[in-house]
Design brief:
Blueprint lengths: L11 E6 L13 E5 L2 E6 L2 H7 L7 E4 L9 E8 L15 H8 L25 E5 L3 E7 H5 L9 E5 L12 H12 L5 H7 L4 H12 L15 H16 L3 E5 L8 E6 L8 E7 L18 H17 L1 E3 L2 E7 L7 H12 L4 E7 L12 E5 L5 H14 L4 E5 L6 H6 L4 E4 L25 H19 L1 E3 L5
Parallel strand pairs: 11-13, 11-14, 14-17, 15-16
Antiparallel strand pairs: 1-3, 1-4, 2-3, 5-7, 5-8, 6-7, 9-10, 10-13, 12-18
């Protein structure tokens, strides 16, 4: 049981492991989102805190000063990623303490001050406060410009997640939405046509596409796909045009000034229904501290390339979906899931009938000595959707060893937080093992970058789309 101080301060932040049961408690009215795998609540309600203590066996109880919640300030949760010890050298020293110390004396310039490329921390003064610190997390209060550029300066195994300015609804996935996925699970069986379609994804084309996104291809002008770079805008335009060339209707959807837009592509269903199935990846990237290079070959060029491979196969084989389908490439993921948060909120406000969504993030790294793998989220996501994806992997990609990963969290979290059934596919049933994670060396031409594994996981994502949306083929296609 989480112990609460007998005398609570004026305002406190409670950060506890994600627990959907909190949606039915008094704490739900004080919910500030899920960040990493932590549900965050801010309240002055001492009675509610005491009544809810039995919901949690662990967590952090953080007093907040009045200044930390000023209108011009942004609260940001910092979380250490789940990484394999093999990619942290014996001499590795976590730079987070130095980062936090430096942040209190200087901060980043506004997002557009670097002419669109990554920059180092400058001398733009701001009010910065460290409110909470553990071995693997921290809570800081910074100005809004600094909050938007934290990813450029954080040590590479840390991620930033901005808190909203006010409480947000704690929306569990509705029982009827879960029941719909369970019904799909109950009737799932091997389909030889689906098998033919998913195996039609082209590895040489996957290689060509990712090399364009990373800038390894001579025909590519992309140096970086950081969310504020010129290169990411080139990538957005190219993605839109490529998806459209293969039969999708696409739009670039801006969401926040300075950021690249989301690329949202749709296939209208042949049936008269609002049901929609969504698959996604993020196309922005993050490089080494102080470098203008952010090629993002694995994170998340691999997931974006998988979407392109699926779209090319849809066109090549003449697939026509019965239910509506969306393929989304999100921006702003590296700064705190900004692009997907805005889009998931938009869909919730519109009352979208989203059957499920599956996010692909980091599919390419194949750790030496290990089998090809599929990692599924161990906490954040809808268990029934995760089980559906696992079952489809066993049917259509039996070469993959399937298990759970603590690596958290990608854009599926935005949809999960809006009460949509969601899950993620990842390259490993375990923590992150890619030594080029958040590094300017994240290219495709390197050891253990496995295009066959990208295809195997893309097959699972595509099979999910085909089974859930339903499909027909143009006449003459076998």
């Amino acid at each position: 049981m989480l112990l609460v101080n007998a005398v609570a301060p004026l305002s406190v932040l409670l950060a506890v492991p994600h627990n959907p049961q909190a949606a039915g408690s008094c704490l739900s009215q004080y919910y500030y989102g899920t960040h990493g795998q932590q549900d965050v609540f801010i309240t002055t309600d001492e009675l509610c805190l005491s009544e809810s203590a039995n919901l949690f066996s662990e967590g952090s109880f953080v007093p907040l000063s009045e200044g930390s919640q000023e209108r011009q300030q942004q609260l940001v949760w910092l979380q250490h990623e789940a990484v394999d010890p093999a990619i942290t050298p014996a001499t590795f020293v976590d730079e987070i303490d130095a980062f936090l110390s430096h942040l209190t004396t200087s901060s980043a310039p506004p997002a557009d001050a670097a002419n669109g490329e990554q920059v180092v921390i400058g001398t733009h003064k701001s009010k910065t406060e460290l409110l909470h610190r553990t071995a693997d997390s921290a809570l800081i209060s910074v100005d809004h410009d600094t909050a938007l550029t934290l990813d450029q300066h954080l040590p590479r195994f840390w991620r930033a997640s901005p808190l909203p300015a006010s409480p947000v609804p704690f929306i569990p996935v509705p029982d009827e939405a879960v029941a719909r996925v369970r019904d799909i699970l109950a009737h799932l069986k091997f389909d030889p046509v689906v098998s033919s379609l998913v195996n039609n994804i082209s590895v040489p084309q996957l290689r060509d596409d990712v090399r364009y996104l990373t800038g390894e291809s001579p025909r590519s002008e992309i140096v970086s796909r950081h969310s504020f770079s010129q290169g990411v805008l080139i990538a957005a335009k190219w993605l839109k045009e490529t998806f459209e060339e293969h039969g999708a209707h696409c739009e670039l959807k801006p969401f926040l000034s300075g950021f690249a837009p989301n690329v949202v592509c749709s296939y209208a269903g042949s049936e008269h229904t609002t049901e929609t199935v969504l698959i996604s990846a993020h196309y922005d990237s993050r490089g080494s501290f102080g470098s203008v290079r952010a090629p993002g070959g694995d994170d998340d060029g691999s997931g974006t390339t998988a979407l392109l491979g699926i779209a090319r196969t849809i066109a090549r084989r003449g697939v026509r979906f019965r239910k509506n389908v969306q393929i989304c490439a999100f921006a702003g993921e590296e700064q705190g899931l900004y692009g997907s948060r805005y889009y998931a909120q938009e869909l919730r406000q519109k009352g979208a009938n989203l059957t499920l969504m599956v996010q692909a993030d980091m599919l390419a790294y194949h750790a030496p000595g290990e089998p090809a793998q599929l990692g599924l989220p161990d906490r954040i996501g809808t268990p029934e959707v995760t089980q559906l994806v696992a079952n489809l992997s066993a049917i259509y990609s039996p070469e993959l060893t399937v298990g759970f990963t603590p690596a958290c969290c990608s854009d599926h979290q935005s949809f999960h937080g809006q009460g949509f059934p969601a899950t993620q596919v990842f390259e490993r049933a375990g923590p992150i093992a890619d030594p080029m994670y958040h590094n300017s060396g994240d290219l495709s031409e390197r050891d253990n970058y496995d295009f066959d594994q990208i295809k195997s996981i893309a097959k699972v994502q595509f099979a999910t789309l085909l089974h859930v949306a339903g499909f027909d083929l143009d006449e003459g296609d076998d």
